[in-house]
Amino acid sequence: MPNRQRPAANMVVCPEHLFCLQCFRTALRAYDPDDGELFEVSCRLDAVASILCAQCSQRNSHCDNAPAGIIGDFFDFALVLRFCKEFWTAESDAGVARWDRNMLPLISLAVRNLAAALASILAGHRREHDLTQSRKKQGKARQAYRHFCAERRMALSPLPRPGRDGTPEDLIAYHSARVLRLEPGDVGFTSWAAAKHACFAALRSAIVQFYGDEEVAGVERLEEFDNYFPLVLDEI
């Protein structure tokens, strides 16, 4: 098959949570937490008029999108990535790295385990709804899945879009309320909830390991972590 012609766009867009699953799998396979770098899905939409990301175009492949019923879970994963980026980028008023660089592999491992859990619930969700075959062969299963998602969307409680004076938190809440997630009783719900609990505990444990939980420095960092961790953890 000949290479696709891709007139380049002036701006490259890198989706935070609506990334191509081919790019997600590539990133997960290649990722080594011991390198001390934050997990990143390098999905690049760089063409003027193409439905394919850069990787899929180069491979003459097709982009694979997250099923509508769990886009909210990918959104939550992206929030954790954005939150954890602060461990790499935050600086003190004096311009010094705020977090000990030696703890970064522990942060990386916690995020990698969460990414692996997300890949697992993706596979389970597709099996549950018979979405594992090619699009051409899914037929009735895809139609039934659209109906399933439409019914679930009726139970959402969308928020009004924030105005110009809206905060970043307002925008996150707005977008979060518009997407579907796994619900109790769904295949993978409990394991995904457990993975989020495990990620939270691992990140918190890394802070305690390097800063303690009794001295002022450790207590303040733990309070900050508890207050700003972006997810509300499900009871399981």
Structure overview:
- With 236 residues, the chain is mainly alpha-helical.
- The chain has two domains: 1-65, no CATH class; 67-129 and 138-236, no CATH class.
- It has helices at residues 21-30, 54-58, 71-84, 86-89, 104-128, 135-138, 140-153, 168-176, 189-211, 216-228; strands spanning 8-13, 45-47.
- It has a two-stranded antiparallel sheet with strand order 1-2.
- Helix 9 (189-211) packs antiparallel against helix 10 (216-228).
- The longest helix is centred in the middle third of the chain and has 25 residues, at 104-128.
- It is globular and about 60 Å long.
The poorly predicted ranges are: none
In what range is the share of β-strand residues? under 5%
Average pLDDT rating: 90
Provide the number of structural domains.
2
Approximate helicity band: 40-55%
User: Which H/E pattern describes the elements?
Assistant: EHEHHHHHHHHH
Largest sheet: 2 strands, antiparallel
Describe this structure in a few short sentences.
The termini are far apart. The chain has 236 residues and is mainly alpha-helical. The protein has helices at 21-30, 54-58, 71-84, 86-89, 104-128, 135-138, 140-153, 168-176, 189-211, 216-228; strands spanning 8-13, 45-47.
What keyword list fits this structure?
mainly alpha
